[in-house]
Amino acid sequence: MKALVVDAAASCMTIAAKNDDIKATLSLDMGQKQSQKLLPAIDYVLSQVELTTSKLDYMALTSGPGTFTGLRLAFSALKAIELATNTPIYGVPTLDCYAFPYSNFDGTVVSIIDAKKDQFFAAIYKNGAVIQEAADTTAEKVAGHVTTDKKILLVGPDAALFAEELKKIAPALPLSVYASEPFPTDSLFTIAEKQISDKKPPLADYDGPVYLRKSEAEIKLESESQK
User: Fold this and answer.
1) Which of 92, 150, 154, 169 would suit a FRET pair with 142, their CA atoms being 20 to 30 Å apart?
2) What angle do CA 113, 175, 13 make, to 5 degrees?
């Protein structure tokens, strides 16, 4: 299949395109400059596999939780392509995407994104199934869910940071963190094509990012309205 996928939920943005068996992947960890680089990055990966947007069978992205700016950028870019080419977009929950490569892990998998302010977006899995839904939470609360588990694998872009926080709370927890992880875009290709095979509908026009927290602007507006 011919596809374009984007993970912009965390600080490092990854874009990939594939033309049947040929694939190109690009990661950008550039802070605020990412907003200027997403569209050129999409053009670049498509060119590397000799594709144009008009030839795509589908697109997919991590649908949240994640950074407000990154998620909005990805949705805006892919929806613009959808509008021009009528190419369907499939959304994959971010933490599910990061946990997917470890579906056969013999233990507990905790998928993590740093949500700042001593908070984390986290979900917990066993045998590939969600046992604790994605939440805006703390290391202490997650520790309470896994205190009796014998094997705990932390995954996602901020797994190492989360491991440090967990060790402060429960130093005896049997934690594992991989030094390097597969590109999340590889999971996006696989999960999206499973959705297509299962005839799951793509994102609707009105579908947007999944946020677990209000933006700073929303919090400020609510605070001002209560004065």
Assistant:
1) 92
2) 25
Q: How far apart are CA 45 and CA 93, in angstroms?
A: 23
Map residue 71 onto helix, strand or coil: helix
User: Can you read off the two tokens belonging to residue 82?
Assistant: 């959808």
Q: Which residue has the tokens 């989360």?
A: 162
- What gap in Å lies between CA 64 and CA 135, rounded to an integer? 11
Report residue 195 as tokens.
């959705």
Indicate the burial class of 94 (C-beta count within 10 angstroms; 0-12, 13-18, 19 or more): buried
Cβ neighbors of 64 (< 8 A, separation 6 or more) are 9, 71, 93, 94, 209, 210, 211, 212
